[in-house]
Amino acid sequence: MQYFRTTMKKAFILIILFTIIGCKKSDKIERENQPAIYNVENQDAEMNNIIIEAKQTLPEFYKALESKNANQDFFAIKIHFKVNNDGEHIWINGLFKRNGEYFGVVDNLPELTKEVKQGDTIKIDSSRVSDWMYLDNGELKGGYTIRLLRNRMSEEERAEFDKTSGMAIK
Description:
5 helices, disordered N terminus
């Protein structure tokens, strides 16, 4: 079993990374000791397009993951879980490869899905990937949904996000 490095000093980023729910509730759900959930409509064309882009660029993520580059860390994949006519997108980290397949640990406390629980180890199904990310010398690579949601924040929210995350987003 081959484990890929994620540094503890970057673990705090999990607190501010996004879980997306495709539904018609308020834009943001705050949860105690859990990441905020940002609601996005299923018909959000811009979000749907960047999810397609994330899927198309997934080979770049796997190449970086397997490179064992000491400057790259905090690898995570966002997986879509279907819930009735909606869905929930949850970050998976602690990624590793076994027998040619990728696995990871559910990092967020699910809000809607009963398919998984926080801490579960799951097999990564590439068809369900909605985003991926890693840090390269502190700079965000991938993170398509993070970038889009960050761009939709007010100037004050964006400044707070940047300060809290410590990520360089270019």
